[in-house]
Every structure is written in C-alpha cells, then in structure tokens.
Request: fold
Amino acid sequence: MFLVLRAKRIFMVLCLTILTIGGIIITCNRTLVPVFAPDATGQAHYYIIDAGHGGEDGGAVSGDGIAESDLNLSIAVKTEKLLSFLGKNTAMTRSDGNAVYTDGAATLREKKRSDLENRVSMVNEYTHATLISIHQNSLLPSVPAVHGAQVFYNAVEGAQVLAEQTQQQLNQSINLENEKAAKEIDSSIYLMQHVNCPAILIECGFLSNAAETQLLQDVHYQTKLAAVIVSGILQTTNGASS
Reply:
C-alpha cells in the first residue's frame, strides 16, 4: 500500500510540474495559446492515444524477448492519464493487451489489417481530434549504439508543428546529446495516412539497444516519457484546445 501511495504522489508531482513548465513556456511565447483556452468552434477537442500493435502482433522484439506492444500500452496509458488529469478529453484505441480486429479475421495478416482499419474508423469518428501513436523502434541488423526518441507526423495541417514541438521537448529531456529531428511519416504507415486529423507517431526508443530497452521497462522512465510527450503536445496551438 505504501508503494502504491508513493507512486501516486510521484505521478501527481509530475502532473503539476507539467502545468508549471507549460505555463512558463506559454507565457514566454506570445504565438502560443494558453493551455486551457477554449476551442474557437465551441466543439470538444479529443486527444486519441494509440498504443501500437497488440494481441498476436507484438511489434518489434528486443534481443531478450521484450515485446514492443506491452511497452507501447504502458506508456500510452500514462500519457492518457496525464492528459485526462489536465482536463483534456481523451480516448484510446486500445486499453488492454488485445488487438482491435473484427470477428471473422482468421490469419495474422487479416487480423492486422482489420485492426488497423478499426483504429482508423475509431479516430475518424471524432470531428476535432489529435492522434498520438506510441511505438518503439528497432534496427535490423542491430546497431546497438543507436538510441533515442523520434517523432513522425502525417500530412494533415498542424501535425508538423505538433511533431516538432514534441521532438524539441524530447531532445531537451530524453535525447541528451543525441538530438533527433521530427520527420514526415512514410506513406506505407496505414494508420497515419488514413486518419483525418493531425497525427504524430512517437518512436520512444530502440529495442535493438539493450541499455535503452532496460530504461523503457522502468515505470519511472515511462512516466517521464509520458510527461515530456504531454508537455510538447500542450505547447502547440493545435494541442491547446480543450
């Protein structure tokens, strides 16, 4: 019980830290909108958190057998909780270890296709939304020295600014002396190319790097990642609407 309470206190402190840092940055940059500014259209804005892969599709796997899908879910849940705590409307494409394919999909290929189509449908149900998709990277053949978090964005207006701001926060807090640049997503990534809203995909680290794989399994590091991601999202004009 003590450990649970202590973890909750740490989580709340991180949330309050985000509020403080976000407020300072927004005050210093007059081109940004206050974090809790209302949507000009009067319609609710939703942050949709996507934990990549799931079910039989584990995604990338580290050398010691750690599946990407479980890490994605853990970081995604923490990201959703932080945004919700800060008063934002949120939704998740999956909230457990299962994929979201339709009954009748038999082969792994059919299940993966159905899963992606269902995620796109979920996201596109929201008129005003931002998609944040959580993933892990890996290099094959392995290049153990490569590490760090990188953000990719789709072609919808607002996504690039959102990605660049989030990448800046990751570079300052996670990628120390290992800065990366936000990039437009490859056209082969089905989910990112078929949603109607601004979308970013965050590769939180490399499972081909043993040291980073260890970090990614640490609950405190996952919380830090979630906090940095949320901080970046809430500093953009697109991400500021409630």
